[in-house]
Amino acid sequence: MGKKIQIHLQEIIYGSSDSTISKQISKLEKEGKIRKIAPRLYSTNFDDSPEKIVRRNLFSILGHLYPGALLSHRSAFEYEPTSSGQLFLTYKYTRKATLPGITIRFLEGTGAIEGDNPLSGELYTSQQERAFLENLQTSRKLGADSKTLSFPEIEERLEQVIRINGEEELNKLRDQAKLISEKLGLQKEFLKLSKIISALLTTHPSKILKSPIATARVFGMPYDPARVELFELLFRELNNHEFKFREEKNISIKAFRNFAFFESFFSNYIEGTVFKIDDAKKIITTQKPIFARNEDSHDVLGTYQIVSNLKEMSIIPKSAEELLHILKYRHEGLLRARLDKSPGKFKDQNNFAGQMAFVDINFVKGTIIKAFDFYQAIKHPFARAAYIMFVLSEIHPFLDGNGRIARVMMNAELTAAKQAKIIIPTVYRDDYLGALRKLTRQREPKPYIRMLTRAHEFSATILGATMDEMQLILEKSNAFLEHTEGKLNIINLCTDEENN
Question: Helix or strand or coil: residue 498?
Fold first, then answer.
């Protein structure tokens, strides 16, 4: 008895030259149990479009219809059709074929060789070294219709090999590519590949490189491209907003310093350096640490000494080099009592928040420099403050004190523009951290901007000739409560009403 098609187990059914199977397919189609979605291709799924069905089963379809085909060129890296629906396979002839939503571009060439990877059934995919050689072939088409990736894309993939696995791995890739090039007659392509690798390893001139990421590595400043992309996202969103200029009203030296006390108090509280308010006041007024808590006391004192200095807080970077310099000396002042945290030096070991890794130690400097490009293009002081604070929080360039230095740099932007500084009170800590996480993990800048705008609106209400007057407003605002005990109220200065 012939093989029976089990339609309840199969979403895809293939046409066959076997007359028994062919008759079964014809019968099932007439009964409305299956439908034809492409030549030699049927489906039991009547709900999804043929395009969706094909995409979901793409590799098994290709392996069945074109046994021995090799997913090659750019498709060996991307594993999906291009934006124009092109998929490239090396096969026994050069031809075009179509499936719903996809154009298959067959390129005549050598099939799978040793080291190429089985993908599905009798479909293979080019091994990495072969794929690089294929992508360095000449292509008459451009963009999404090209069988090859662009030079910058190829360079960035090679740079990623160094970034993740080191220079030795890139040299191994070159050695293997040389062997493959001799098998496949791709010696010209190997020479191109070797030149790019030499440039990345700085053994040859770097003028041949097109990718900014690859070029940055050659000049000793590799950066984290995913983080830079995130910074660009925030930059664009900030530039699409109008922000209120909230003028600094604590203009006397005394008022500025009183505000700086609460700025220091809350900034350290966020990081877990918790003092009673009276103890913190004593540290500031006496300029002496509490004996039993020497390092914690110095954290509060170090922060205060920076943020209470109007001249210092009016300094903002005019270049990327200045930014690096300012970060280091301010960090040294913040953590001068914590020698084990390398004050004033960028981290020498990677740091994490749960499972999330901050920027790798090898990319800290380059990522800060690259982020400066967007920073210098921002004009509104609040937008610059919001940008620089997130950048430093996301990079986490130091072993410790990253949140504090990020908020110092944020408020320096505002001080330099004679705008009210920002305090993140205890009651608002959860909102603050949640908005940062949302931008980092879900790439949503709007909640972050809303959060910081509200914090700025609140902070502009903290006025008074004395520290006690400011503290009274903070208490009315619920600033000292935990987020589980209340929510932030903004006091209307004209009516003394609360704004929730």
Answer: strand
